[in-house]
Design goal:
- By secondary structure, the protein is of the alpha/beta class.
- The protein has eleven helices and 13 strands.
- The protein has a domain at 116-274: 3-Layer(aba) Sandwich (Rossmann fold).
- It is 32% helix and 19% strand.
- Strands 5-4-6-7-8-9 form a six-stranded mixed beta sheet, sandwiched between helices. Strands 1, 10, 11, 12 and 13 form a five-stranded mixed beta sheet that branches.
- A hairpin with a 5-residue loop joins strand 12 and strand 13 (327-332).
- Helix 3 (33-50) packs across helix 4 (52-61) and helix 10 (200-209) packs parallel to helix 11 (234-245).
Length: 346
Amino acid sequence: MDSFFYALALSPYLCSYKSPMIDTNKIFGIKSKLEFERFAWQIFNFQYNNNVVYHDFCDHLEKTPNKLVGIEEIPFMPIEFFRSKKIISSKKNSQIVFTSSGTTDTRTSKHFVIDPSLYTKSYRAAFNRFYGDVTKYCVLALLPSYLEREGSSLIYMVNDLIDQSHHPDSGFYLNNLKGLQEKLVHLDAQGDQTLLLGVSFALMDLVEKHTFSLKNTIVMETGGMKGKRKEVVREALHGILKKGFGVSHIHSEYGMTELLSQAYSQGDGLFKTPPWMKVLIRDPEDPLSPQNDGKTGGINIIDLANIYSCSFIATQDLGKRYTDGSFEILGRFDHSDIRGCNLMVL
């Protein structure tokens, strides 16, 4: 679209205001690029005016609402800010605080969530979009590194999916790998559609102790080794898991503490986002410059569900975006700090 007509079409959303003035239900029903961009402008203006940290960041870059045209020009706040600052776009108290797993030598990220219902709407709608009605599944979770601490957004989501499935055998497994093996074999044999979500190191532990030939089970890895094992590239990890579980594809979830939305890969290493989430690539040498599709760079994320924190985040991940909006994860800028969901190294 010509830049003049593009700006004209979006001009009603470039004003400043103190209230988001957004029907949040409509965010999860976005159907077009223009609709996404209208919401993005609204939320950018709202967060610029209500988030002190983000406001100062934008001012420092001299990228204020009245100076921008395309959404690619919106400043993406470094994800590291969630470790040292309170990122919040509201004067209300947070109802829940999600925390990252972190490591012994780094500070954890904190995501102050004003309205947890936005998170619930986001992950339920995304799951339904990619996998259908959760009541069709028995949901089994092997997430020991998350389950053993407080504040995990992943545990919050999976616990709700387990409840929503209404399957009597849905549930978490911690260290009982033998019990999980027996349950998987039993469910698969009787034809129950099963979803096994697991952190990578625990899934590897499982297939090292037991072998499977699953026909009715989706295996989804949701994170890295968490310091329990040596990190491996995703292709090698998936090769081991496919052989161990006897499946043709390993699915993946891409999410993190600082987001309220997730992307999913259904086995080809390419992630797809729900309509209210968008991935852009930045130049690895110039973080303020966008990178063209097909080229490797830093991953920037627009998450419109993050209304009351920050919707425009520059992650530490390296990746590639394709013309259809799908993307792949290729590594991280900082290989010394492996954390978060699905952060594999080269």
